[in-house]
Backbone:
């Protein structure tokens, strides 16, 4: 990931003062920043005379990262989305659809396995 000093020209809050503060916490790149404890960083920033500007720099760096990737989703949100998204594609066979709980779930890979001559190819066709 990008070193912090490469952001200085485009983002004025990521100045040498901010970079020195980050370096005191072994943060030299955006990756280092993302791996660091944000609460500890904000607490440490509050102890400095330029605390407001440091906090603004931290929030600016977070907004830069947020703009470059989709929002992070935790496991509980993924589970809720999975349970809410009940769109199925019918296999054309009522028995298989019932066995699969409604058919093939969109967005998932369903693998058919079984012994030779058990009908896997016929299901595919």
Residues:
């Amino acid at each position: 990931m990008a070193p912090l000093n490469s952001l200085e020209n485009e983002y004025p809050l990521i100045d040498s003062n901010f970079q020195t503060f980050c370096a005191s916490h072994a943060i030299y790149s955006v990756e280092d920043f993302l791996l660091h404890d944000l609460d500890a960083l904000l607490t440490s920033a509050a102890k400095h005379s330029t605390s407001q500007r440091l906090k603004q720099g931290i929030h600016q760096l977070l907004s830069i990262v947020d703009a470059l990737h989709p929002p992070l989703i935790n496991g509980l949100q993924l589970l809720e989305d999975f349970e809410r998204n009940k769109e199925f594609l019918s296999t054309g066979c009522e028995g298989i659809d019932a066995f699969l709980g409604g058919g093939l779930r969109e967005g998932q890979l369903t693998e058919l396995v079984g012994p030779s001559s058990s009908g896997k190819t016929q299901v595919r066709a």
User: Anything to note?
Assistant: The chain has two domains: 4-68, 77-124. The mean pLDDT is 87. The longest strand covers residues 88-89.
